[in-house]
Amino acid sequence: MKRKEIIAGARRVVVKVGSSVLTTPDMTIDLQKIQDLSGEISELIAEGRKIALVSSGAIAVGMERLGLRQRVEGLPDKQAIAAIGQPHLMALYDTYFQKKGIQISQILLTRDDMDHRRRYLNARDTIASLFKFGALPIINENDTVVVEEIKVGDNDNLSVLVAGLIQADLLIILSDTEGLFDRDPKVYPEACLISEVEEFSEGILCAAGESFSPTGIGGMSVKLDAIRKAASFGVPTVLASGKRPRVLRDIFDGGHIGTLFLPRRDPLSCRKQWIAYGVRSAGALYLDDGAVKALLYGGKSLLPTGVARVDGAFERGEGVDVRDLSGRLVAKGLVNYSAQEVAKIKGKKSREINEILGYTWGDELIHRDHLVILSAPGKEAS
Ligand code: GLU
């Protein structure tokens, strides 16, 4: 797919803004930048795009509030500074987005929220509802509570997880670099910007290797690692300089800005690979023939009506096998209802769910986005 089509056609977009974009060289918050980005994002939303903004800057704003000039070291101090900075960062965004009539919202995530399926689903549903309300989710790591074991660690990787979470069709990482160069532009002034990366070849990684930042979070190696993950999830990424005026506008107006990393062409996304091969099945759903056909050949979600039997004691969000009545494995997926709930709603119409359970987690037992077809004659896994 051409760059123009990918970008113009992107309806769900994650924009990641790094601290370096939001601060001036003397480490003060660049209010003009926040205002400009808010204006550009508002325009994209007005065009009907759903934007999730992953914004760093809590620590930078906290440092400014405390009058600190040097980055602090100890974890509790960093967490305290983030706790001070985060609400002020949000207040700044609120000021500018309000002027554009956009309601903002704050989501603070940890690695744990992504790993635990129930929390993952809840985060996904919350963001879907925020989009429904026309609100802009502004996402950061929950710096104040994360410890090493449960932290994502950097917002490049967080933005990729969010891109997976909302099934974004584009990720834009705004940083202090113009993109990926064929060698380190700080060392080689003649270095060329690579405008498109189709594959993460050795050559690309080597060339970029020279420009890896040895310091802290968000260096080029971290970025490339994150972008590679996005590509394997099927999400294209633009890496561009957030310092450039009207950068988002120019990207969407078709300018050859930054580096576009194309997604992998594999039929199975990384997430689906994970569902297919990584997730432990905690039970099974047995389908009647009609439902099996709809699933295999109609590309449909799995609804309760086609389920004849349920096995196991799974919870909402866990992995389950999907089998035909003879027991043949046809698919695997992450289920939207627990085994107990499925036992009550199997064979019923989706519109009856609310009446039977007194609540609903949606029409689908397994949404097709969380379903991997494993066995269909004449068909690849998909
Ligand atoms: N969460 C950190 C902050 O808001 C930034 C982490 C990063 O930029 O990667 O300051």
What does this structure look like?
This protein is α/β, with parallel strands linked by helices. It folds into two domains: 3-267, 3-Layer(aba) Sandwich (Carbamate kinase), CATH 3.40.1160; 280-373, Archaeosine Trna-guanine Transglycosylase, Chain: A, domain 4 (Roll), CATH 2.30.130.10. The protein has helices spanning 3-8, 19-22, 31-46, 58-66, 75-99, 111-115, 117-132, 155-165, 202-209, 220-232, 247-252, 270-278, 289-298, 339-345, 353-357; strands at residues 12-17, 50-55, 104-109, 136-141, 170-175, 196-197, 237-241, 259-261, 281-287, 307-312, 319-324, 329-334, 371-373. The strands form two sheets. The chain has an eight-stranded mixed sheet, with helices on both faces. A five-stranded mixed sheet has the order 10-9-11-12-13, with helices on both faces. Strand 11 (319-324) and strand 12 (329-334) form a beta hairpin. Helix 3 (31-46) crosses helix 5 (75-99) and helix 4 (58-66) packs across helix 5 (75-99). The protein is globular, with a radius of gyration of 22 Å. It starts with a helix and ends in a 9-residue tail after the last strand. The structure holds glutamic acid. Glutamic acid (GLU) is lined by residues 18-19, 56-60, 82, 140-141, 143, 154-155, 217-218.
How many E strands? 13
| Main beta-sheet strand count, sense and barrel state | 8 strands, mixed
Low-confidence segments, given as residue ranges, are: 210-216, 376-381
Kindly name the structural category: alpha/beta
